[in-house]
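**User:**
My hope is that you can spare some time for a protein that puzzles me. This is the protein in question:
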Amino acid sequence: MYYFFDKKHQCSLRNFLYRNKLHVWETIFRPHAFIPCGWGRKKSFFKAQNLAEKNGLKALCLEDGFIRSLGLGKDGYAPLSLVIDETGIYFDALQTSDLEQLILQPETEKLNLRASSVIQTILNHKVTKYNQKFQSIDPAKFEQTTRHVLVVDQTFGDQSIKYAGATPATFKTMLAQACHDHPHAIIWVKTHPDVMAGKAKSHFQPQDLDSENIRVLTEAYNPIELLDYMSEVYVVSSQLGFEALLCGKMVHCFGVPWYAGWGLTQDHRAPLHILNGRRRPNRSLQHLFACAYLQYAHYLNPVTGQRCELEEILDLFIPNIQFQQQLAQSYIAYGFSPWKKKFIAAYFAFPQLKLKFQRYFKPHKHHYILAWGKRAKLLKESAYEQVTTVEDGFIRSVGLGAKLIRPCSLVFDNVGIYYDATQPSRIEQLLLNVNLSTEQIDRAQRLRKLLIDLNISKYNVGTKKSLTRPPHSRVLLVVGQVEDDMSIQLGGVGVKTNLGLLKQVRENHPDSYIIYKPHPDVQSGLRTGKIPEPDMLHYADQVELDTSILECFEICDEVHTITSLSGFEALIRGLKVYCYGLPFYAGWGLTQDRYLSQRRNRHLTLEDLLYVTLVEYPTYNLAHTEVSGIPLVRPEDVIAYIKKQLDQPVSYNERYKRVLLALYNILKKIG
């Protein structure tokens, strides 16, 4: 049993503890032991410590980890990283801590190599403690001909200042030293965001900063991006000092943060005497990182609810960081139904981003607008320039959108949309410029194997029954589509009907065995494009209504389609694909194309196509991760989620609900 005294952080701790069935302190303490817990060096910790002493126990001290979340805790973003210290706490240099004891252990090559790899990932993607969208830096602000030095302010009364052996006066000493050391440089004083928001007090008065070469940084820049422009960094106890070390900068410490005293920092004015000789100045940067980020901090995967390693957290953070960098500060979501509003908001649950839904009245033309499919096209044709088209992604769900099944994947295209071959799209731009690294190629190959091994498609519908291959040397699968779908209207060229496609395939291949698979929405009468049964049987040797498309792939040699996504799914499985229109995957040298697009002027590998289509272009979201503050997940997470759904039998209530939804859609269709 854990007894936690800090009400402010109870929600964060509860989220971390109870969702994490393998949390670390179960391996240290008895599962039912009474363990007092407190936060940092706040009153809650000292209460816990007093209670622990009375009961002959040790109190646990908790704090946020060094890579915490997308947004700030005060904005409701729960921590995905915590440190749990039985001895002290990392920022308290007045006594030892679990982190200090880890650093004192001998270095290992294996852990240092792992640390080097993770550090490079952090620097490449500029991952920091809080990963909200930062302001863009204008390089002209930091002239390359001038030397720039960063002096880091902290909030007045910050616990880490006192416990690093420093005082408020230390900050003025630090600034004076930086000015003395660099008389010809620009000294940038970085104020804390809470100071700029008026929620905290600075250590500097206006008169302290009244100098020709001192400038104040008030913008919310990404710390790692900012450090690229700095030559040296001066800190008292800020974590920014360690991030500066990761960036290869010289760091001057005027207090004793956890990373000082190990031979990596300039500690010429730091009160090292408070350490009483505990630290040895011969530790590598990789060792410090490994001890703090890989061993001392503990991480929670919001997808699985289990403990995980930092690498998994980075894999989740990176697509979120990349996606939010592309976003504007606010959007008008125009014309979305009440059902779609629920999941659209989940995809845009980023810090400081405003999303307003507007059902009927058209937004102003200067707004950034989100709109679905046809509505987005109409807005663009009406001279709205800042329109992002929203559509389902390529690994969507278990069930059709027509049955109101929530999508696990969406695409947001601010250029065009993937099925519109009449104009460029973001996926086309990505494919034209793709240049995969070895790691990305490996990931594409792993994704392909996952989809094949687990039999995952876009909708994952249809009866999974084994089909017997017809006794014929050449078996063709013709895939039907919804004829009024935008993908045929904007991607079809000559053939634009299912009957026209079926006739064309039979005419071109009179001696082949043809299997026709209608679209499930069309065959059920919900959408247009149904071929009369006599015509189907005249041109096709076999019709498969309910069988999964993946089972059909198993018994055919080729797939013939206008623009269906089934063609892409067939490519993944190594089948030959004939395109009678211009789907997004045609024109790259991977399909047999009846028509060509002059814009698509390079040949791609299957890995190129798969990586862009499943990793770079779409976004993924799972409903159960919304409380974690991580809007987007990885395709691998969605594949695992869909596989779990497919393995679970559908309950009676769920079947009943699906029948009602189908009836509702039929009634809606007939008016």
Observations:
- DSSP finds 24 helices and 23 strands in the chain.
